[in-house]
Specification:
By secondary structure, this protein is of the alpha+beta class. It contains 4 helices and 11 strands. Strand 8 and strand 9 form a beta hairpin.
Length: about 180
């Protein structure tokens, strides 16, 4: 399925491949690659609240600020949270980025091989084969509790809204 005119980059309309994720549905499974080219998926983060951010590339100013902010802020809210960033960047570039900027609290994965995450979460930009900017929060039972598709890909997500939702979800999922 393709969705037209739901995202833009610098004002130009984009087509997103895949269906929009709805709050209350079970999170779709996905396969991505880590820095060692090993396959990872949702099942690797059982019993965690998962904040998943899709971004076009870590090597852009907005993505750079976004990962650093979540690395510092969101992860300090609870030991039961796993922050996950997914982009089309090659795993080697992601590893270099994380080492350069001391990103240790966020798991970073590549969707470059099959665009499995991009299609399953409705964030694959057809025209560019990059991921659109979005944030999903998935509870410990793998139910989607929050989603934010950022209309203008070159802009950051609404951090205050994401962090407020994350606090609420943490309170609803005590261990």
């Amino acid at each position: 399925m393709e969705r037209k005119n739901v995202a833009t980059i610098n004002g130009d309309s984009l087509t997103l491949v895949g269906e929009e994720i709805k709050i209350g549905q079970y999170a779709p499974r996905f396969i991505v690659r880590d820095a060692n080219l090993s396959e990872k998926g949702l099942e690797n983060f059982k019993d965690k609240i998962k904040l998943i951010a899709s971004v076009p590339s870590l090597d852009t100013p907005v993505c750079d600020l976004q990962i650093k902010r979540f690395n510092d802020e969101a992860v300090s809210m609870s030991k039961d949270i796993q922050i996950i960033f997914i982009s089309m960047d090659l795993p080697f570039a992601q590893k270099r980025f994380c080492q350069t900027y001391n990103i240790k609290n966020v798991k970073v994965f590549s969707d470059h091989k099959d665009a499995n995450f991009g299609i399953n979460y409705g964030v694959l930009i057809k025209e560019l084969r990059l991921l659109s900017r979005a944030v999903f929060i998935i509870d410990m039972n793998d139910v989607v509790r929050y989603s934010q598709y950022v209309k203008e890909v070159s802009l950051p997500p609404d951090y205050a809204d994401v962090l407020k939702a994350l606090k609420t979800i943490i309170a609803q999922n005590p261990k």
